[in-house]
Specification:
With 357 residues, the protein is α/β, with parallel strands linked by helices. It has two domains: 1-82 and 281-357, Luciferase, domain 3 (Roll); 119-260. 35% of the residues lie in helices and 19% in strands. It is built from ten helices and 15 strands. The chain has helices at 3-23, 31-45, 47-56, 67-70, 104-118, 141-153, 172-184, 197-207, 235-246, 345-355, and strands at 63-64, 83-86, 97-100, 127-130, 165-166, 169-170, 192-196, 219-223, 253-257, 266-268, 277-279, 284-289, 303-309, 318-327, 333-338. Strands 1, 4, 7, 8, 9, 10, 11, 12, 13, 14 and 15 form an eleven-stranded mixed sheet that branches. A two-stranded antiparallel ribbon has the order 2-3. β13 and β14 (318-327) form a beta hairpin. α2 (31-45) packs across α3 and α5 (104-118) crosses α6. The two termini are 33 Å apart.
Length: 357
């Protein structure tokens, strides 16, 4: 079997998890079985991953997210991976790159889990994006995901009626006109509003004390941080301000957590109250590990996030982030911010092992 055929078969198995989730059925196979087969495939075709596996003596070692800045984390070469997502620009250091042969599996998982998290019905609804179109930011995984939401969940609309940031400038007039038309339409459905934390901060600055009165059942996705940016706003404060500006309850603001190096996303639990707890789809797992030994910590303790992602078929089935997390007894995990300072020691050692240093 060729490498492409192997990849296609693994993608099909990964998408079977997504399809079963959409139908409300049991998963098609054990999580660990596919995770191991992904790691075997990646070790066979990626010398750096094979080195990491040998050095750590683990079946499924975690690749640190910082490795995506210094090494090509892919089983395919650049010619065979025409799609690349890059991490946000920071004040220092290189941008990480995640190369894709296809985004079909990524797209299926993000739309399926996002639809449930945001409570979007199968009928098309209005989608408002406080951000640029994918043509303006083609190497952003978040912009790509939002564009898929607009395409798969959104009712037909012109680009200028969907995206409200153009050439780095927010078009408040166009957004106001779109919201006004929604409110006036007799059969209008409540929209979803999608954007990054930083874009929402700029929107709030532009609004001042003014408000957009959105329909009661509107849901707002709050995602993305302020990595490498001078401007930071507390997440709880941002949630309160968005609820005020959109005339919604805080429960209408739903947090999303993802990263360029993954193909899956995590969403705040919809429990009728603002929980701050994120849950995984059936095709991903988040385990807090000790930042030095990379051994899982005890239940309730804080560690850095080791994330197994069955949709990361052609790159790394497991990644290691510098984000601090803690599992909760009711299921899911709390996101407690990034580990400050230098990368955790366990991450640095793993990068050296990948590079053979």
């Amino acid at each position: 079997m060729s490498k492409v055929d192997e990849s296609d078969a693994l993608h099909a198995r990964a998408r079977a998890f997504v399809s079963a989730f959409e139908r409300g059925e049991a998963m098609p196979e054990a999580f660990g079985a596919l995770a191991k087969d992904l790691a075997d495939f990646q070790a066979r075709h990626s010398a750096s991953y094979a080195r990491l596996r040998d050095a750590r003596k683990e079946e499924i070692p975690a690749v640190p997210t910082d490795a995506f800045k210094v090494a090509r984390v892919s089983v395919f070469d650049e010619r065979e991976t025409p799609i690349v997502f890059r991490t946000s620009g920071t004040t220092v250091g290189a941008r990480g790159a995640h190369w894709f042969r296809t985004t079909a599996t990524y797209d299926a998982g993000s739309v399926a889990f996002g639809r449930v998290a945001l409570g979007v019905p199968r009928e098309k609804i209005p989608v408002l994006v406080v951000g640029p179109s994918p043509r303006a930011q083609s190497d952003s995984s978040l912009t790509h995901m939002i564009a898929r939401f607009a395409s798969e969940m959104g009712e037909p609309a012109r680009e200028e009626e969907t995206y409200f940031v153009h050439d780095g400038v927010m078009d408040l007039v166009a957004l106001d006109e779109r919201v006004t038309r929604l409110l006036m339409a007799r059969d209008a459905r409540a929209p979803i509003v999608l954007g990054t934390a930083l874009a929402f901060v700029h929107l709030l600055d532009a609004l001042g004390e003014a408000k957009f009165r959105l329909p009661e059942k509107t849901r707002v996705m709050q995602t993305g941080g302020f990595k490498g940016k001078k401007r930071e706003v507390d997440a709880a404060k941002l949630r309160r301000e968005l609820a005020r500006a959109f005339c919604l309850t805080e429960r209408a603001i739903v947090g999303e957590y993802g990263m360029t190096e993954l193909s899956s996303q995590f969403w705040e639990r919809a429990s009728g109250s603002v929980s701050g707890v994120y849950v995984e789809p059936p095709w991903a797992r988040v385990v807090p590990v000790d930042p030095e030994t990379l051994v899982p910590v005890r239940d309730g303790e804080i560690g850095i996030a080791r994330i197994e992602d069955l949709l990361n078929v052609d790159s790394a089935a497991c990644v290691l982030a510098s984000d601090r997390v803690r599992r909760v007894a009711s299921g899911g995990f709390e996101l407690l911010g990034r580990a400050e300072g230098a990368p955790p020691r366990g991450c640095s050692i793993s990068i050296d092992e990948m590079l053979g240093e």
